[in-house]
Design goal:
Blueprint (H helix, E strand, L loop, with lengths): L4 E5 L4 H12 L3 E6 L7 H10 L5 E3 L5 H11 L1 E6 L6 H6 L1 H22 L3 E7 L22 H19 L4 E7 L1 E3 L18 H9 L6 E4 L11 E2 L1 E3 H17 L2 E7 L5 E2 H12 L5 E4 L14 H7 L7 H14 L18
Parallel strand pairs: 1-2, 1-4, 2-3, 4-5, 5-6, 6-11, 7-10, 8-13
Antiparallel strand pairs: 9-12
Helix pairs in contact: 1-2, 1-8, 3-5, 5-6, 7-9, 7-11, 9-11
Length: 351
């Protein structure tokens, strides 16, 4: 099929919009399905400025069976990238039923709609939270499920459902992508992450400190058994993650069965190392305060990425310095996300 259409659920969000850019660059035609509850349709106009193509938007909930059927019928979908879902760990603890409803029931509704439409290629955006507080790194895909919060457990449940489906029906080609910590932004400065409310993740918080929106970064613990005492995580550029979706799509379209694969860099960076990298990128001092450890935080974890190299031919190409430089470019040009007029950057960036 020439330039196949790919349904991207959650495609107006942070990772989804970057995935649209990567899909278009690879010759696909993304069709975005999104409620816009935690995202912004203006991100798709930014995709157009980068690529010259604005993906069509189907505004609906992934749990809406009738709307899904209409989307598949109208757009002749060849495959699905499933990124829609709730993702705040803390919120999942206070509202577990809501998370199971959206993340698990939504995935089930999507798979049923795919069955009805005869579409059996699916890339599922999972998470490294399926591994829980695994004490040993690098973490391989063979590590057991050990999720410690409702958000992570919803990812485990969907992965198990998809594995059962792939075993039962060889016509399905499925890839579950276990992200570690996606950060950064598109190099054009046109696309990036702007959380609704206080950021849950480190780099958006640092960005807001750098522009004066927040006073300081709270470092949750500096007495871990790590080189500088702060937590170590595997940070991966969002465009590397987006390109990982394209690699997984090609793999799943050619082969049946289910593949679970890590998307990370294969090395860890501490909180203080990330702050230092952002200071280099921005030329600004990042104030910090040390607070107590958060319950459940592991001292350090990072991905074993050999499986992604072997099966997908994919590896992360962008450094921590580039992640921070791209985040800063986005933050500086878009201090309030998409709420202000389009930034004064190139009308069309080169992919």
């Amino acid at each position: 099929m020439t330039n196949p259409k790919i349904l991207v659920t959650g495609g107006a969000g942070f990772i989804g919009s970057h995935a649209c850019v990567a899909l278009i660059a690879a010759g696909y035609r993304p069709v975005v399905l999104d409620t816009l509850v935690n995202s912004d349709a203006r991100s798709l106009r930014r995709v157009s400025r980068i690529t010259g193509v604005e993906p069509p938007l189907v505004r609906c909930d992934v749990r809406d069976a009738a709307a899904l059927d209409c989307a598949f019928a109208e757009h002749d979908i060849a495959a699905v990238l499933h990124l829609a879902g709730l993702k705040a760990v803390g919120h999942s603890v206070s509202d577990p039923i809501g998370y199971y409803d959206v993340n698990v029931a939504g995935s089930l509704a999507l798979v049923r709609a795919m069955e009805r439409a005869g579409v059996r290629t699916l890339i599922f955006s999972s998470s490294a939270t399926v591994y829980g507080d695994t004490p040993r790194s690098p973490i391989r895909e063979s590590a057991p499920y050990a999720a410690v919060n409702p958000y992570g457990r919803t990812k485990v449940m969907v992965e198990r459902m998809l594995a059962d489906l792939a075993r039962a029906d060889a016509r399905w080609g499925i890839a579950c992508l276990r992200f570690f910590n996606p950060i950064g932004a598109h190099e054009s400065g046109l696309l990036g992450e702007h959380p609704h409310g206080p950021p849950d993740n480190l780099v958006p918080y640092i960005s807001q400190v750098a522009v004066g929106e927040r006073a300081h970064v709270v470092v949750h613990g500096n007495d871990y058994e790590t080189p500088d005492g702060t937590g170590v995580r595997d940070y991966v550029h969002v465009m590397d993650v987006a390109e990982g979706h394209v690699a997984a799509l090609r793999h799943a379209a050619d082969r049946g069965g289910m593949l679970a694969v890590n998307l990370g860099t294969g090395c860890g960076a501490s909180v203080l190392e990330v702050i230092s990298a952002f200071e280099r990128a921005s030329g600004r001092h990042i104030a910090l305060r040390v607070g107590p450890r958060r319950p459940g935080d592991a001292p350090a974890y990072w991905a074993d990425v050999q499986h992604a190299r072997d099966r997908l031919g994919w590896c992360a190409r962008r450094s921590l310095d580039q992640m921070c430089a791209d985040s800063w470019r986005w933050q500086l040009a878009n201090p309030h996300g998409f709420d202000e007029r389009e930034p004064a950057l190139a009308a069309r960036a080169v992919i």
